[in-house]
């Protein structure tokens, strides 16, 4: 390793439009009690038609804040990494859109498709490029427009109540201090469970007319499918494993964690991990209550908020961990 990378600036953006559990109960058969009891979610944000937002636009808004806080000029960005499962276009990716929106000339832009683990996968990519000395400054974005593709009827309720829109961004830069910054990242995937949490189409294999013809009305594959309990069981196991893997790699103990930011999949999953590791409320940051699951955006939004609230201080050990569709999972150990 030639260099170390560190987070120099963080930013987040969520649309103004708040959608409460009560609001959802007006369009589908659900209720506040069921949603809060199973997921901890009270409300989420949805893009409103005409508010100008999209996955790329929200990503750009979060990126602008992160760049300003990092005090790094857009023209000094060497690489853009954009993580999302809900891009504006089938192709090209959102990375090039943000490049254009920010007025950045010809740096490379890379889209990452690793769903809820997207931000950690992106962080790992950014870290490797900085560590080898190839790039100095990387703009990393996680952004999702879930509301653009959810089944907002009773048929889709077990998925649609969980997900929300938003974006988060981090500017990573080269650090001279080898003991500070991203200490390590740990990535995994297990493709045999690919369809347990998936959106089959529209895609080259499943185009719209075929989708409608091939499938009975009650199982429409152009909306996300989730085997909730199977995902839950795998998530709690993989979260625990990958956090321990990261700690071990750095000769750290659970007690050394100053702040754990778990991907905001479900408050019950976070609480399970907190209890298992015997962490206090101050050692774990959750905001799923306000935003739902924002997939690739959830960790950078939570990290930004925790930092803004002064909950992360210099020298702290910050642990990020995620699990999601693929299945994919990962962790990052950071010395702030
Ligand atoms: C999705 C999840 C909240 C569902 O909770 P659950 O306890 O597994 O609930 P089930 O799916 O077994 O459904 C229980 C009942 O509630 C009903 N239900 C489903 N969604 C509902 C909703 N939004 N409102 C009211 N009732 C609902 C079901 O139809 C079922 O009814 P039935 O018993 O009459 O058949 C839970 O499985 C979960 O959180 N899984 C992990 C999800 C996750 O983390 N995903 C992202 C990974 S990155």
How would you classify the helix and strand content by structural class? Answer: alpha/beta
Strand content: 15-25%
> What is the name of the CATH class of the largest domain?
Alpha Beta
SSE string: EEHHEHEHEHEHEEEHEHEHHHEE
Rounded Rg: 19 Å
Q: Which range best describes the helical content: under 10%, 10-25%, 25-40%, 40-55%, 55-70% or over 70%?
A: 25-40%
Low-confidence stretches: none
Separation of termini?
19 Å
Helical run tally: 11
Look up the CATH topology of the largest domain: Peroxisomal Thiolase, Chain A, domain 1
Known CATH architecture of the largest domain: 3-Layer(aba) Sandwich
CATH homologous superfamily caption of the largest domain:
Thiolase/Chalcone synthase
Number of domains: 2
Bound molecules: coenzyme A
Tally of DSSP β-strands: 13
- Sheet of most strands: 5 strands, mixed
Shape: globular
Strand order across the biggest sheet? 1-7-6-4-5
Overall average residue pLDDT: 95
Pfam families: ACP_syn_III (PF08545), ACP_syn_III_C (PF08541)
Protein name: Beta-ketoacyl-[acyl-carrier-protein] synthase III
Pathway: Lipid metabolism; fatty acid biosynthesis
Subunit structure: Homodimer.
Topology:
Layout: E1 4-13, E2 18-20, H1 21-25, H2 32-39, E3 43-45, H3 55-70, E4 79-83, H4 94-102, E5 109-112, H5 118-131, E6 137-144, H6 157-160, E7 166-175, E8 181-189, E9 197-198, H7 208-214, E10 225-226, H8 228-249, E11 259-262, H9 267-276, H10 288-291, H11 298-308, E12 317-324, E13 328-335
Parallel strand pairs: 4-5, 4-6, 11-12
Antiparallel strand pairs: 1-7, 2-3, 6-7, 8-13, 9-10, 12-13
Helix pairs in contact: 3-4, 8-9
Bound molecules: coenzyme A.
Subcellular location: Cytoplasm
InterPro entries: ACP_syn_III_C (IPR013747), ACP_syn_III_N (IPR013751), FabH (IPR004655), Thiolase-like (IPR016039)
Organism: Mesonia profundi
């Amino acid at each position: 390793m030639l260099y170390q990378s560190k987070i120099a600036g963080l930013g987040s953006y969520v649309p103004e439009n708040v959608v409460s559990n009560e609001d959802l109960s007006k369009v589908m058969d659900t209720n506040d009690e069921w949603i809060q009891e199973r997921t901890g979610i009270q409300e989420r944000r949805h893009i409103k038609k005409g508010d100008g937002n999209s996955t790329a636009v929200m990503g750009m808004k979060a990126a602008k804040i992160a760049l300003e806080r990092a005090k790094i000029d857009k023209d000094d960005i060497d690489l853009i990494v954009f993580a999302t499962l809900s891009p504006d276009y089938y192709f090209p990716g959102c990375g090039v859109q943000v490049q254009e929106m920010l007025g950045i000339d010809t740096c490379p832009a890379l889209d990452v498709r690793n769903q809820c683990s997207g931000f950690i996968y992106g962080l790992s990519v950014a870290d490797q490029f900085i560590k080898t000395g190839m790039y100095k400054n990387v703009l990393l974005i996680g952004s999702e427009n879930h509301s653009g593709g959810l089944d907002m009827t009773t048929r889709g309720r077990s998925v649609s109540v969980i997900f929300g829109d938003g974006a988060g961004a981090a500017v990573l830069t080269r650090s001279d201090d080898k003991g500070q910054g991203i200490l390590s990242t740990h990535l995994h995937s297990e493709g045999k469970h690919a369809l347990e949490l998936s959106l089959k189409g529209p895609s080259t294999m499943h185009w719209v007319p075929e989708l409608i013809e091939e499938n009975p009305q009650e199982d429409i594959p152009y909306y996300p499918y989730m085997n909730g309990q199977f995902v839950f069981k795998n998530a709690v196991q993989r979260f625990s494993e990958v956090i321990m893997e990261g700690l071990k790699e750095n000769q750290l103990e659970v007690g050394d964690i100053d702040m754990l930011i778990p991907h905001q999949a479900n408050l019950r999953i976070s609480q399970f991990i907190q209890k298992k590791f015997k962490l206090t409320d101050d050692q774990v940051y959750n905001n799923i209550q306000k935003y739902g699951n924002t997939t690739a955006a959830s960790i950078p939004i939570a990290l930004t908020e925790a930092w803004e609230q002064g909950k992360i201080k210099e020298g702290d050990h910050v642990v990020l961990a995620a699990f999601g569709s693929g299945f994919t999972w990962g962790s990052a150990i950071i010395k702030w």
